[in-house]
Write a structure and sequence with these properties.
alpha/beta, globular, about 200 residues, two-stranded parallel sheet, Rossmann fold, 6 strands
């Protein structure tokens, strides 16, 4: 099941999974709706930072997680980078790895593995989020989208190459896998660098 609340995102999901008979697209708001059934994986990409009660939402999703299921979280990192772009995007916060792990523990879940990702995107985020907004406000023609295209063609391959070989000590985002507290082995190989490619996920 692929979900969102924004009509344009739901349309994009419908187009992306049109030929995938095993994927259902539906509108679902985690603040008001509960998924039907149980799932082996619940993936929340750039969602948690938009929720005021982040630990409460995670706790409510436990019942939708199968006994061996995992919740995969991808969130913006480093509150020192919080700026106008975060406000415009509706972010309540950015996270450190430790802060996200504390939220998971407060929700009654256990961390299987967590890491920083997108190290090379930190200076780009600062430049694009601070300078990009000012440029958009000061010029009628916005070249910000073109800047992002250049970034995707150059920095994304470099990020992929680097982070499949080295776990960065800091990054623009935190990637975390959590599950029920019983029967978990810390540092599960699910997040081995060679098995997770985060370069296609939008940086926030």
């Amino acid at each position: 099941m692929a979900t969102d609340t924004a009509p344009e995102c739901l349309e994009a999901l419908e187009a992306r999974f049109r030929d995938s008979s095993n994927v259902t697209v539906r509108k679902l708001d985690v603040l008001a709706d509960k998924p039907d059934g149980q799932f082996d994986s619940i993936i929340m990409i750039n969602v948690l930072e938009h929720l005021l009660d982040d630990s409460g939402i995670l706790a409510s999703l436990k019942g939708s997680l199968s006994p061996e299921g995992k919740i995969i979280l991808y969130v913006p990192a480093l509150n020192s980078l919080f700026g106008e772009w975060d406000d415009l995007a509706g972010h309540f916060r950015r996270y450190s790895k430790r802060e996200l792990e504390d939220v998971i523990a407060e929700a009654g879940l256990a961390v299987v593995d967590s890491r920083y990702v997108n190290l090379v995107a930190i200076p780009a985020w600062f430049a694009f989020s601070r300078l990009g907004i000012r440029r958009k406000q000061s010029k009628p023609t916005n070249t910000f989208g073109r800047d992002l295209q250049i970034w995707d063609r150059t920095a994304v391959p470099a990020t992929r190459w680097l982070e499949t070989r080295v776990r960065p000590p800091i990054g623009l985002n935190v990637l975390c896998v959590a599950g029920h507290r019983r029967g978990l082995t810390p540092k599960n190989p699910l997040l081995h660098p060679a098995r997770v490619d985060t370069s296609e996920i939008p940086a926030t």
